[in-house]
């Protein structure tokens, strides 16, 4: 199963399949889960992890919305999609920066996923017009 296959089967896609956008959608979906898991793990940590939890949960919500918008192909709202991809980049960059400040394996993994998601969103943004 792949989201790429699902998108390619959409009647409005045809030869207009956007591989970078599909990859960004997949990574945004995964990033949302990574960030949610990291926030939950931060709840179990000693010390004040409020800002990390907030950054992770904000990023999770933004990534989830990005994944949803990126796979919708009926009609178009290019301006909204571009704005959402840009917002996802910002949220992922902020979350990665926050997670880098903590000495935990879950934060390190979350930061890595956020960087991958941001890179994929940048690549997708370049091809959305």
Question: How would you portray this structure in words?
Answer:
By secondary structure, this protein is mainly alpha-helical. The protein has a single domain, classed as Substrate Binding Domain Of Dnak, Chain:A, Domain 2 (Up-down Bundle), CATH 1.20.1270. It is built from 5 helices and no strands. The protein has helices at residues 3-8, 19-43, 50-71, 78-99, 105-126. Helix 2 (19-43) packs antiparallel against helix 3 (50-71) and helix 3 (50-71) packs antiparallel against helix 4. The chain is elongated and about 50 Å long.
Index terms:
single chain, 129 residues, mainly alpha, Substrate Binding Domain Of Dnak, Chain:A, Domain 2
Task: Sum this structure up briefly.
The chain is mainly alpha-helical and 129 residues long. The protein is 75% helix and 0% strand. The protein has one domain: Substrate Binding Domain Of Dnak, Chain:A, Domain 2 (Up-down Bundle).
